[in-house]
Design brief:
TIM Barrel, about 10% strand, 8 strands, alpha/beta, 12 helices, single chain, 8-stranded parallel beta sheet
Length: about 300
Amino acid sequence: MDRNSVNWSGPMPAVTTPFHDDGRIDEAAFAANLEGLIAAGATGFVVGGCTGEFWALSHEERKRLFDVAHEAIAGRVTLIAGTGAVSVEETVALTRHAEAAGCDGALILPPYFVKLSDDEIFAHFADVCALIGLPVVLYNIPGNAVNAITPALAARLADLERVVAIKESSGDWNNYYGTHLAVHERLRVFCGPSSVFGVPAVQLGADGTIDCFPNVWQRGGLDLYFAAKAGETEKAAELQAMGRRLTDLFTSDGRTLYPATKAAMDMMGLPGGGTPRRPLRKLAGAPLKGLEAGLKTLGLL
């Protein structure tokens, strides 16, 4: 397998996982968010990723999320399941369920928390890939996983049979650019922080974007890819500037990305928001008021 084994491209939002007040997954709101994003132009989704709070879900909840997403999407767009876990056994079990559920691919990050060598990261992916059937999207997000997929390591991992793509979410343009140069002829490259540098990534040749902001900024977050791809320079620049402002708003003055995303969805009347799972907390007080004021300033409320 390689990049030519799949046809994945375009803006594929990383979607939130909404919960009822008692903590159960709100399957209806989850499906409604997918439906709204398909109508807005999404070409696919990542479910159960970082934006989906996978770390706070049991394995059974993660599996159920894959089932619900497949039923809701009904084959209309690409479905990538976040199946990364610390152990090979857990990752394989989740990925096998994603395949049985009808998902198109698996997004897998390196084992997290404990610092690993490049050889150990490679061995983990090699062990997983030998035991699964789905195509794999490598997931580089060292800010969350601790362990990084460098351009050199990405080039090694591209040799594994199941690996067809990478989501580069380091937030470091130099690492993104280096990764693109190292693997784009063999792997599909998706830009993670498209709100920060999605336009230059697409202009460079990124196959698509995978970001959380379309959950709350549907048309703009998706059109950022389409405008850059079509060479609509002025529109793309305006959308990139908005993405940057949203990123700053959601991650400043006591706010962090995932609770702010859900709070903004609630303010805008979009399905999929609500209370995040602990240890995250719902925005309140000054951070919540600041988010509301900022969204109004940006013309989104």
